[in-house]
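Local shape tokens

___
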Amino acid sequence: MQHAIFDWIKAIIRKLIFTLSALSPRSSNKALFGSYKERYCDNSKYLYLHWQQTKFIRCIWISGDQDVIKQLQSQNLEVYYRWSMKGIYHALTAKYYFYNSYIGDINQWLANGALKVNLWHGLPMKKIEFDINTGPMAQVFNPKGSLTLYKQWLFSHQQRITPDLMLSPSPLIDSLFSSAFRLNSSQLLRATNPRTDYYIIHPSQRSQLNQNALQGTSQSASQSHYHSVHESNDQADKPSIILYAPSWRDSHKQGNPYSSAFDWQQLSNHLVTNNQLFLLRLHPNEASLADELTSYPNIINISQLEDVYGFLQEVDLLITDYSSLFIDALPLSTPIYFYRFDEQHYQQDCRDMYEYAEKLPVIAPKCTSFNELLGALAPEAIVKQKKSYRENYQSVSELFWGKDTPTAFEALEEKIGCRY
């Protein structure tokens, strides 16, 4: 009981600190950046990198991870520990916060008064934030009763802070973000995403990432196979790259759902026979589950990589389920398979899908069993898939990304309108 009272007092004090942080003067030529799970990744990373190079505004990365801080310092990038004196000072005095999930990516208690730009980490198919009405996250965003609502206001502080601005590439995403984040039209800026724009604008950095991307991620034999075939001039010797990137299964509290979803030995045999590499990219919240699944030839765990955008254009097939990564792959015309081995469970016990998702034109096969998936991985099946869905694929790409949508960099620079 005493411990619970202390938690309430601490939460109230933190809320008071957040309220008072609005009084701090803030510099309009300084922007802070951060990412979820203390990672250096996603939209905020690429906006930070771009502006570091163009000198549009002073860019500072904030993190609670000393390894990330050392990594950026080694690249002569400005970065500070969240609770260092400089980290606190900049959190209180920067005009702009750019983050991938919540203001806690930077500092959730000192952000009041800054212009908060939520770059988010996906264009949603499953319900997000205040649209969630099933599964464990529903109690955070849609609690029942006044007392429970007040409790969530205190204890789920950053989840209930409305961003001042979000990027949206199309009218469809306008409607989703407006509902999920409780935004009006003035809080939406028509633009694509930094993570999908960066390597188009900076193509020379793509090869550098590719060269080092898979080092230290899996079995040495698989690493050697990857590097040898990608350094070869003989295109016929290069393997096909299959990326498996499932969504986070937030209702799985015990066990590893991917152990039973695949026959990993059979998959490995198929990959070796057909000269294919299978890159396993689990959600950061599930990354540890991949450790026991990758002791097989041609299966490489990349779950610990910062992200996949530096080599996404090289992927020959993307396999996902409910993840929005497939949306990022649409402009690249990458063939896609949906592997939904737990569809009924996911829809019942996790989050609901948005209604529009059920009405999308079919752009890819849906597999619900491993045998179905394995048959679809035959090289000739992948080629056929790309031809069969071409028209629907293009229309869905335009639905998400619009036509002639400005880049995130262009749109934000016009909106902010300052240089230092």
